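Students often ask why we bother predicting the structure of a whole assembly rather than each chain alone. The short answer is interfaces. A chain on its own may look different once its partners are present, and contacts between molecules only exist in the joint model. In this exercise we take two input lines together and write out one structure for the complete complex. Read the inputs first and try to guess which parts will touch.
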Amino acid sequence: MPARVIVTAADIAGLRRVAAAARTLDGVERVAALALTGDGVVLAPAAAAVDEVAAAVGGLADVVLACPGGGALRGDIWAAALTEAAAGGVDAVFLADAPAAREAAGRLSIALGAACASMCDEVAVDGDGALLVRRSVYGGVAAGTLRFGRSPAVCLFAAGVCEAPEAAPAPIEQRAAPAVPCDVVIVAEEAVEKTVDLPGARRVVSVGRGFQKADDLALAQPLVTALDAELGCSRPIAEDFKWLPKERLVGLTGSSVTADLYLALGISGQVQHLTGIRGARVVAAVNNDPRAPIVRNADYVIQADLYKVIPALLAALGGSP
Amino acid sequence: MRIIVCAKHVTDSTEIRWDDERGEVVLRNLPTKISDYERNAIEAAVVLKEQGEDVELEVVMVGGEAAVKTLKEAVAMGADKGHLVEGGWDDPFDPVRGARVLARAIEAIDDADLVMCGLVSEDGYNGITGAALAQLLERPYLAPVVAIEPGEEHVRATLDLGDVLRTVEAPLPCVLGIDSSMNVPRLPTVLQVMKVKGDRIGTLKLADLGLAPGALGELAGGVELAGLDSSAVERKRIVLEGAPDEAAAALVAALREEGVL
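Now the answer. The structure tokens for the assembled complex follow.
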């Protein structure tokens, strides 16, 4: 039985996610939230943001441990701060997925001699009191249940959307961040403008290998505009051909959508892709191969050449073909 | 400079299917290969070897006899040597175990300036091994790496952190997690794979890893797969017939009906 749990994340959305997971467990006696604070640190760019952290874990955590990380968020400092927070005894540490969280989870697992599971969706406890996590396995072919044979458990949670609770904020305890010697120097930083929001989009038009060349992807744009959709793509387009940036990738190594409508154009529907569209309410697909897996995983299918269907769809939507 | 790339021998993930009748994942008799994401790591290392002088490049892979073919393919991409680690089955769901086996193998090979991994592996998609390895080897961990500039005693790398591209400089030795967007891995020809002679493939036995026979279990992280079920979402699978304009009109009508337009 995980009696003592620490929840931590690199941003408020992630913190709500892991806090929601911890809320589903019965018999948890004590939950602590760990927030790294300081300039440039994602979770809490200013001291005032610790209040936001306290609100996100309200009614769940009995304390927020606020450590001034200082400078950029570092996985090694995060892992060290978690190791210190775990010193009084801990059964599970829940982290929300992010690049620095992966480093923190990997380092922490070794430092604590803990078992580690990634891509966790849900947690539960079995009859013997062992922690169970559910995650997508084999590229999304199946859902697996992993059982922790020892404590502590380090669980890295897949992204998910969770509401903030209506509860009194948790009390905040300021702590000094552990000193971790580090010879890694930041030489330059360039902000990347985020223009794509696939997880939050209400409609997504996604392109796949059915498009014969990079220039042809432009054919999908009028449809994206007409549907007021976000443009997504499958793995070959982003990772193999690199016709579109990775931020447009839908699937296991990209984003998962929660859209009302997902329109797949020329996407065969490998499991890695299907994993990312599980949350879509209605899936429509245009594909000229009746044996493509997307056909069995869509609500509406047009089995025809996408080069002919796109203008027809535009006309049917009332736009110019 | 000495580079070690950790590459995983995996079942081709595009061939894995869920068997509805038996209620299990079909894994037997499927083709195996180098995990896609480690191909990117090998490619990045081969490019460093081509650009630099005196770069020695080795690949480590955990697995039994079945992994030899995969390891030869990895070496044929442009490595000097491959090491097959007798670590038994590389459990996709226990990244801590994988990292412990690899850390012992890397210490046995000795003197690596750069240890390079894929950001994830094609079987478990955990994204944990590189960081756990860095902790075990007490080295910095840089990820997700999209550009590398090696120096004498330092390495400069650009990390794609989503909202920011950060360029950092770390002292050697260190561990890098390579992002798949960094490159397009080369495919070795059948002839190139055949040319990888046995003397370029070494074996690290349990004793080389400092383990007594039967002591592999000590490296286990302590988590295991306890059950599987289908993750399929039931869809309507309605095929809209007719010429493109008819089918398109039917789709728009159906989507209006669903209330998603």
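Check your guess against this: The CA atoms of residues 92 and 153 of chain A lie 5 Å apart.
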